Structure formats: C-alpha cells, structure tokens
Amino acid sequence: MKANWKYILSWLIMIIAGFYLINILIMVGVIDSFIENMLVMIGINIILATGLNLIIGFSGQFSLGHAGFMAIGAYTTAIITQHFDSELGFIISLIVGIVLASIIALIVGTATFIRLKGDYLAIATLGVAEIIRNIINNLKITGGSAGMFNIPPLSSWPTVYIMVCLTTIVLLNFIRSRNGRAIKAVREDELAAEAMGINTTKWKVEAFILGGATAAIAGSMQAAYVQTISPSNFGIMESISILVIVVLGGVGSMTGTFLAAIVLGILDTVLQNFGALRMVIYAIALILIMLFKPSGLLGNWEFSFKKIIPTNKKERD
Amino acid sequence: MEHLLQVEHVVRKFGGLTAVDDVSLYLNEHELVALIGPNGAGKTTLFNLLTGMVPATSGVIDLQTNKQKYDLTHKNAMQIADLGLSRTFQNIRLFKNLSVMENVLTAMTSKYKEGFMTAVLRLPSFYRTEQEMKSEAHQLLEIFNLSAEEQTLAKNLPYGIQRRLEIVRALATHPQILFLDEPAAGMNPEETADLTDLIKYIQEQFKITVLLIEHDMSLVMNLAQRIYVLDQGKVLASGEPAQIKANPQVIKAYLGEGAD
C-alpha cells in the first residue's frame, strides 16, 4: 500500500501541474483562444481514442461505430441543456448520455460479439453507428439534418481537462485489474480464455460498454463546447479519424493514444494555413509514420512512474 | 462405485467423418490415466468433447462431485472449467503477449470476485483481492521454478518452459481433473523425464485426477495407472499398462512389434 501512494501522488502532482501550466499560459497570453480551441479538441479526441483503444487494443474487437456513441452523448447534452441551462443540467445530461450509450452498447455488444469477429464486427458496428445517425437525422427533437444550434456553452477547457483525467484514470484502473487481464486474455486467445473459465462474451461486452460510455462523455463535451452539432459530425469519417489516432499511437498503448491525439491535433491546426494542401500533407504524414513505424508511434509501450521511481518491493508491478 | 467422470457412448461426427465413435470411459478420483493411439484416432477430439470445446453429437458425459451429479454434455467450455475441469493444448495456447504472472492470474479470473467499481475506484478490497491472487500465483510459480521469469512475456520463453507454464496456468483454475494434451511433444528424453516427475508430483500434491494424451510410451508406461487405447474413434482396449503392452490388437494397431 505504502509504495502505491508514491505513484498516486506523482500522478496527482502531474495532473495539477498540467492544469496550472495551461492556466498560467492563458493568463500570460501564450495560449490564445485559437490554441485553447485546439487544446479542447485534443482533449475530446483523447477521451474518444482512449475509449476506442480499450475496445480495439485491449479487448481485440474491431469497432468502427465509435462516432455513434459520441452522437448519443452530444445530442443528449444538447437536448437536455436547452431546457435546463445550468451546470446541474449539464451534469444530468452527461449521466443520461452515459447511461443511454451504455444500454445501446450492451444491446449491440451482446447481439454482435457472440457471432461476429474482426472485419464482420467492424461492419456491424459501422452499421449501428449509421442507424443511430439516421434516427437522429429524422427526429424532430434533434433538429433533423440541420442539427442543433445555440447549445448553452457549459463546457470549457477546465471541464474537458478534468474529464480527460477522469476517463483516463477509469480506463487505466480497469485495464490494470482482473477485468483488464480478462479482456487481454480474450484478445490473445479466445479459446484458451474460455478453457480457463473466462466468460469471453461478457468481458468483450463490458469493454465495449466502457468504451461507448466514454465516447458519450466526449460527445457531451463537444456539444457544450462547440455549441452546434449536426448528424454530419458523427458520420463514418469521425469514426475513422478516431481509429487513425488509435492506430497511429499504437494499438494497445494509452500513452501512444495521448501522443497521437496531441501530434495530430497540432498538425491539423498548423496545416490550416496551407489551405487546400492541408489534407494532402496530413495524409502524407500518416503514410510516412505508418511506413516507418508500423506498430504506431509507441507500439504497446506505456508510460509509468513505476519505471522511473525505483521500488524495493519487487512484487509490485 | 460412482466414478468421478463417466463418459457413455459418446459420438462426434464432422460431416461424414465419425471422429469419436461410441466411446465409453471413466475416471476415478486421484487417478492418472493415459489415452493413447495412432494419429487421427480421435484423442484430441475426445478432449475437446470432455472440456466443452466441441459439443457431442450424442452420448452422455457425467461429472460426480461434491455429492452432486452434473451433466456436462450440454455445458460450454467456460461452465465446464468452472466445475473444475482444466486442460492444456496440443499446440501451446498461452496468452503470448502477457507476462508469466499475468498468464497465471488470468486463469484465476473466475475464482476471485472483484467488481467493476472496486477496480475502477481502487477501493481497499481491490488491493486485498489483488494481493491474495498474486500471493497464490507466486506460490504456484515458486513450486514450478518459474519465479525468475515472472515478468517475462510468455512468447519469449523457451519451448519447454512454455509447456510447463501452460500446466501451471491450468492448475491455477483449481481443477479436479487435469487434461494434458501431449505434454511431452517436442521434448528431449531428459526433459521428458523431468516432466514425468512433474506430472507425478502434481497428481500427488494437488490431489487431482489426470488424463493425458501422449505418444511417448516411456512416459505413459511409467505414469499411468490405467490406459485407454483409441483407434479410428473407437476404444480398442483398456486396462493396466502391463495388459495393454501384451494386447496383440494394440501392438498391431499402434505399439508395433518389439515395443517395451
């Protein structure tokens, strides 16, 4: 127990230091609203991509429907906060979004994971995301294809920063427990895992629910920050761009996901000055990284204070 | 007397092929039984039937334990594992990218309860459960001389040690019956001798029943209290090692002349 406090404290210090660093840089004027916007988008992408990495990298299930869960969170927040324009309304909308996304993930996961794997699962999850998008597209309460405007601005960079920390802590704690070992075993060898008494479907669905719930959080953050959402924000291109972050950072490395989200976020912002060439340069950068580092920027390497701070208790890993 | 595991008239067909054809056998408590036979005799298929990896076309598999009778015929692999039947595989199926320690801990997943919230919020009971699991895993690894390799990824271990780890992983599920599918495959005579001692030790120390498939006759004859010979999906003969060695049918079908 004692040895663990050191690491918990190190993480806490890092989180608080990061917060104050950004705060000071904003006050001094180094971070203008343009860069602040970039930071928030990076934060939202981190929440999305770490959740997807849990599904793809740790439980080994190929999902292409992440944007669907994001849409659920975004629209829940938009609808609820338009009626209850307050911090409390935002928190309620967050929770409702998480619950809704979890229920849908539970239904979709149970229905598909029993029978489908790999490419087929990817297509099925893609289909589910498109169904969600089409439902939103055709409902009155969601504003149809025009989307929703004037969503109360209840999210700002500190909110996103806190949510990034919270979701990351939840995901990492999940991975570094009996739960995480079970889902990794399922990824490694499903048949052997079953022979060890592991309920493979249950664990796959659990990871899928957790991933979906974090995507809903990211959606809520986006809706309350950007203040405008439309169904076209949550199409297949959004799912793929989240997938790109995961693959680029390294499938199975949360640290890699952080790094890739930051690198791509900065790249995207810098390239805005290049006009039409932007997408070409972006694509070339992706191809180059994949050519020279096929396993992603960090492979499956993870940052850990335990590697930095020496410990005399050998059994702590 | 009631047998621990009773298999009656089990049949498994794959299309037109009958891989296991009307096999009946039994296992008693604390018994070490071998299953031998030529390649393609249906030995591994029989293992897959007993551990629920493949459903039987017909027949009954009964487990008699804790004064209760369980029909395993329609149970899946996970439920059967929970009832205390554990196995290794002919082609090693470790969790390759997990460490030795994690491989063993994973096998304990269903034996220790640890809720989602306790793990995510890191409640005190999380640390307690983890501590218990780890100390049990430590003990197991210690017994099997794998302590030094705890943090090594399973895929980086030498072949013989991978086989040993697979047995340790199977033991971590607290089995009553351990199925070993060709544990000595690919081992040299010295390693095989070590393995023979190890299996004997496991059966005695852990007080479990072992059923093993093996082609190495020295290991089988040294270890087995009883032997079943399978040929073309059928039980060709069964009995004690001495009887099997003298059985002319077995010699013709499998052992060959001059076998000892």
Determine the mean pLDDT of chain A: 91
Count of domain modules of chain B:
2
Helix content of chain A: over 70%
Structural class of chain B: alpha/beta
Assign the CATH architecture of chain A: Orthogonal Bundle
Q: Beta-strand level of the residues of chain B, as a percent range?
A: 15-25%
**Total strands of chain B:** 10
> Average pLDDT across residues of chain B?
91
Rg of chain A computed from alpha carbons, rounded to a whole number of angstroms: 20 Å
In CATH, the architecture of the largest domain in chain B is 3-Layer(aba) Sandwich
Distance between the termini of chain A: 13 Å
Task: Give the biggest sheet of chain B.
Answer: 6 strands, mixed
Instruction: Could you tell me the CATH topology label of the largest domain in chain B.
Output: Rossmann fold
Question: Could you please describe the fold and organization of this structure?
Answer:
Chain A: One of its GO terms (cellular component) is plasma membrane. Chain A: InterPro entries: ABC_transp_permease (IPR001851), LivM-like (IPR043428). The complex is a heterodimer of chains A (317) and B (260). Mean pLDDT of chain A is 91; it is low at 313-317. With 317 residues, chain A is an all-alpha fold. Chain A has a single domain (2-308), classed as ABC transporter involved in vitamin B12 uptake, BtuC (Orthogonal Bundle). Chain A has helices at 2-28, 33-58, 66-83, 87-113, 118-138, 157-175, 178-188, 190-195, 200-226, 236-249, 254-270, 278-292, 305-308. The longest helix of chain A has 27 residues, at 2-28. With 260 residues, chain B is of the alpha/beta class. Chain B has two domains: 5-84 and 175-255, Rossmann fold (3-Layer(aba) Sandwich); 96-158, no CATH class. In chain B, 38% of the residues lie in helices and 24% in strands. In chain B, strands 6-7-8-3-9-10 form a six-stranded mixed beta sheet, with helices on both faces. A four-stranded antiparallel beta sheet of chain B has the order 2-1-4-5, with helices on one face. In chain B, helix 3 packs parallel to helix 6. The relative contact order of chain B is 0.17. The interface between A and B is large, with 28 and 44 residues.
